[in-house]
Amino acid sequence: MNDLIKAINELKKEKNAIILGHYYQKGEIQDIADYVGDSLALAQWAAKTEADIIVMCGVHFMGETAKVLCPNKKVLVPDMNAGCSLADSCPADKFAQFVKEHPGYTVVSYVNTTAAVKAVTDVVVTSTNAKQIVESFPKDEKIIFGPDRNLGNYINSVTNRNMLLWDGACHVHEQFSVEKIVELKAEHPDAIVLAHPECKSTVLKLADVVGSTAALLKYAVNHPEKKYIVATESGILHEMQKKCPQTTFIPAPPNDSTCGCNECSFMRLNTLEKLYECLKNESPEITVDPEIAKKAVKPIQRMLDISA
Ligand code: 13P
Question: For ligand 1, which residues put their CB under 6 angstroms from it?
């Protein structure tokens, strides 16, 4: 493994590449990445890097977002099959039709969407800035929010709005078991429940803190003396444990679990071996239709401007 890490670092230097990694990646990928972050941070780093090659260790839509922001750079992903169930729950043609059927609505799309969905969107959001961006619109603004119904319901509840929601969801966050979290809470009555807003409302009701991966991590770093039950993809525990080595983090289990944690199989497709191969061969490379990219960059840039 040390040889592989050395070889990746050499290739990275030789090719002036940058490795960006999401918190849901395997620990060894997070450790070798130049930057590890949530979806917003990944887009922000991609937008400002001077590297010639961006290796996006995450899922496909994250690579697409980087490519749309940096059309002249080469954007690589270690495994092209690393998709997203949430992005898949919102086919671009059906979403475009839905938007067409609702004239006069502002379209707010979660970043977990294809570039083609972003191309029919007014502003993109992540879980870090969704509340802030929705609240930037007048109270009576008619808004379509897609594709995550759980995040949409949560934002409706905290902003007191009634956005029209697309009926999509993340298969990992939908899987958390209310019963098992209640059991864990009984076992660890002093534990704080951290939950991502992609979880179902029944899980969010049990949470003490609801937020993006970066927000949940920040909360734990600021309160390392506490104990945590964590209801989001279990990759985040790597960075939590690294930043708070003395703290107990318990992954919330899904309904049908034998291992006790909830992993996104797409995120876990990326490995150090594939990262090495992708840097060496400069493939697989993300491409986005230039006409789609021209439209998709506007709502992404709008998000970055609001979040700056
Ligand atoms: P954040 O890291 O932005 O909280 O999003 C999590 C996610 O759904 C990544 O696919």
Answer: 23, 38-40, 112, 126-128, 196, 198, 212-213
